[in-house]
Amino acid sequence: MVNNTTPPILVAEMSANHTQNIQLAKATIKAAKKANADAIKIQTYQPSCLTLNSDLEIFKIKGGLWDGYKLYDLYAKAMLPWEWHHELFEYANQIGIEIFSSPFSQKALELLEKLDCPRYKIASFECIDTDFIHIVASTKKPIILSTGIATQTEIEDALNICSKAGCTDITLLQCTSAYPAKITDANLLAMISLGKEFASFNVKWGLSDHTIGNLCALLSTALGASMIEKHFILNKDIKSVDHEFSMDAFEFTEMVKLIKEAHAALGNGELRKNEGQRNFARSLFITKRLKKGEILTKESVASLRPYAGLHPKYLKDVIGKRLKCDLDAGTPLCFEYLEN
Questions:
Q1: pTM of this prediction?
Q2: 68 found inside a domain
Q3: Helix 190-197, helix 215-223: angle, nearest 10
Q4: Is the pLDDT of residue 109 over 80?
Q5: What confidence tens digit (pLDDT) does each residue in 133-159 have?
Q6: Which residue range forms the structural domain that includes residue 237?
Q7: Residue 230 included in any domain
Q8: Burial grade of 300 (CB within 10 A; 0-12, 13-18, 19 or more)
Q9: Which of 133, 161, 263, 319 gets the most CB atoms within 10 Å of its CB?
């Protein structure tokens, strides 16, 4: 099932890989451009947009990559300072790569609107926040909904809200909300299920990929994804809260190359013959010198390479036919040489 006729939009997700260093953030944007990403994505929030600064156990992460972190402290460490946004948007536009963001509050959205952010991503854990989705969808800009933890009903609710707000350009991303995600949990065929289940909303679909490596991205291309998002880091020497599941510039460049080759190899699905190699096919040839008036036999005509004479399917039809003219061995047989 093909989702679109062009290669997927490839999004480099900076996430926390700026390590709150603006020069590193700009270098990451430049590297994403050089790696042939179609867009760089950032996140726009302050810790208070997401959680409370509380020491209660419920606000602490148990297990996984961020075990023991308070939510507030993790977000404080990972956030992209708001005062950088204007400079980063200006820089990305200057070097010719699209930049957009995931907002996490109305205040964040207002900042991004002032920067003319071209599209918005709703993160997996916000996909169930219908009031916030309505605010974002009311901009009527393209929206990407990551479906990581949302139920089918919650996805439908989000799409109904987008539709009522006048947002018609919606991409649903299959996402496994684990960091990193296991290959065995990727469930890539769910992308196609999203497209079928919500076809009435005319959604596009793709992958927000938290697995290590490029396998899932390549498979998603073959399945028809219209967008693939991968966490992106300048190099593996940088240590951030996201570095363990982020793809570096070299890996991303290689992934882009392979994705474009994979998409080209898929073609358009039309059944067509390979005309360029057809000359190596068989056709009917005279196999020995014959005189005018002689009758063709199995010994004097055969189906051989190359494709220069009659189609092999006519072999039985020409046996027993009389020649109008002399023919040398190796002559491609044509109907014009035969009496009716």
A1: 0.86
A2: yes
A3: 40
A4: yes
A5: 999 999 999 999 999 889 999 999 999
A6: 9-266
A7: yes
A8: buried
A9: 133
